[in-house]
Amino acid sequence: METLDKQMLQGNKLMLTGKSVVPMWFIAAEDYAKQVAKALETAGSSREYVIQGLESFTADEAAAVFKKNYKTPLKTMKAPLAW
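Structure (tokenized):
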């Protein structure tokens, strides 16, 4: 989840690339770490776990939620990707 403010945020612009069609299950690093620690504490390292956010978003949807909740108004800049 931190990619939104640590990598995609440039000043007052949220930089997006391409068309986002596949939803992603965003999760904050701190929440991920807590879930991993709890899983290891409970069952040890011999199991496999799926750790993800509560709901999925495309990059565009995630950007809209981020902008709505950010402390100052943001603009979105979108660069197309050529294949």
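The first strand starts at residue 9 and ends at 10. Residues 29-43 form the longest helix (15 residues).
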